[in-house]
Amino acid sequence: MVDMSMPSWNISTIKHNVAKLRDLSPLWEMFQDGIDISTIQWAAH
Fold first, then answer.
1. Which of 1, 9, 18, 37 is 20 to 30 Å from 26 by CA-CA measure?
2. Residue extents of the structural domains in the chain
3. pTM for the complete prediction?
4. For 12-35, what is each residue's pLDDT tens digit?
């Protein structure tokens, strides 16, 4: 028997985790501010 609530739970969990990762990412914030990330010159470490 297929549990129909599982796809909904999976989607909800994925959305939550993606949002959490985006909150941690300065790149996402830069993207939202309209900064073209492909034009950034990254420093080598």
1. 9
2. 5-33
3. 0.57
4. 999 999 999 988 988 888 989 999
